[in-house]
Amino acid sequence: MEWLSPYSVTGDDISEAEIPLLDDVVPCSVDFKSLPSVRSKSGSWKSATLLIVVHMAERFAYNGISSNLISYFTGALGQSTAANLNAWYGTASLSPILGAFVADSFLGRYRAIIVSSLFYIMGVGFLTLSAALNSLSYSDCKSAGNDTPCSPPPFQKIFFFFSLYLVAFAQGGFKPCVQAFGADQFDNEDEKECKAKRSFFNWWLLFTCLGIIVAILVLSYIQENLSWELGFGIPCIVMCFTLIIFLLGSMTYRFPVNSDQSNPFVRIDLVFLKAAQRNCFPAFTAISHEQEDVGKDVEDAKEILRLVPIMCASLGISIVQAQPSTLFTKQAATMNRHVTSTFQIPAASGITKKPSGISILQRVGTGLFLSIISTVVAAFVEKKRLAIALEYGLIDMPKATIPMSVLWLTPQFLLSGIANVFAMVGLQEFSYDQVPSELKSMGLALYLSILGSWHRV
Prior knowledge:
Layout: E1 25-30, E2 36-38, H1 44-66, H2 69-74, H3 83-107, H4 109-143, H5 154-183, H6 191-225, H7 228-248, E3 255-256, H8 264-280, H9 289-292, H10 295-305, H11 307-313, H12 315-320, H13 327-333, E4 335-336, H14 360-391, E5 402-405, H15 410-433, H16 440-450
Parallel strand pairs: 4-5
Antiparallel strand pairs: 1-2, 1-3
Helix pairs in contact: 1-5, 1-6, 1-7, 3-4, 3-5, 3-16, 4-5, 4-7, 5-16, 6-7, 6-15, 8-10, 14-15, 15-16
InterPro entries: MFS_trans_sf, POT_fam, PTR2_symporter_CS
GO molecular function: transmembrane transporter activity
Membrane topology: Multi-pass membrane protein
């Protein structure tokens, strides 16, 4: 038996005793053994809940690495700017397109998640090793009494960036596939499951945000106050458990059946190619009756194009959402973060709220508006921070602590988080629903990539 490929079942493959009741069979779906999916034993919340937990754990691991990288770059690595960090964020944001293409064209979502997880574990493991090596080099440098700032050797920097980019590409294959696979567990033809799928995206974001909050609060504190090796090592352990949890649910998953075995990207590209031929060379384009019979392919191409206006309109908010992990974190690092005499808030900490049940366009529009307000508030706070720094003669002392409470950053973090939630739920649901069944991963990948700086969620 071929392993989940080509996801097709014929009458010769199963015995009569194995055929479930027709009203308990999920159309266009098979189980792990390539048999018809039984509604009462597979999919829906049984599988979706497990996948939500898997994604929550992965977001914990990813944000445990990414949310405080600006401090590692400017501290342990001795980087003077955030240019390298922004380049990594950009790669992490665009990599879902590559991951979704491989999943939808070759591997399938299930196997793409497994392969991505393995590379993920390897990348985070290398990252932990790199932090340990950098720590040893820094200790040796300090022991030697060098007057110049200590920086890791070039080879260790190369190894660090290799590890970091391996994580970026791995999460690019993991993130769009696991969400699309989670939504695949609901049958659109069943009214109850169709309604549940609409709630799935709300619960998805809520539990994802819980993972992010824990990562930012706990791991950022560990990285700044204990060690970077432990701060990177915990995400590695979490990703190992994430893969195990995902595999344990294999027998409950539903796998969509692709009745057309051709590559969906090839089919859609042919639609655009034929349209261009007809428009540019009408006299030389010979069209047979068979070539005209591409109605489904044309509809698939139209569904992809429907994503473009909404995604273009959402580009502005992606710029705003880049600020919490760069500007906001650096602002916090210069402020008084002490809650008590012995405990201080990590510079990378923020706040996020859960979404409310409103329409897709209302969510997106509200998110766009609040992102603008967040930027305006951040500008006023930065103006006051610089004024205080100037007043106390600290303007040219980037490592000095300004006598200004970090709580001044609460409004901009809060507004940024709420804007994120409002627009996020609507856009991810829109991106999943408006593409053909064979391209669900790509739909979510386009949404993740166009909103590039929403790398956390």
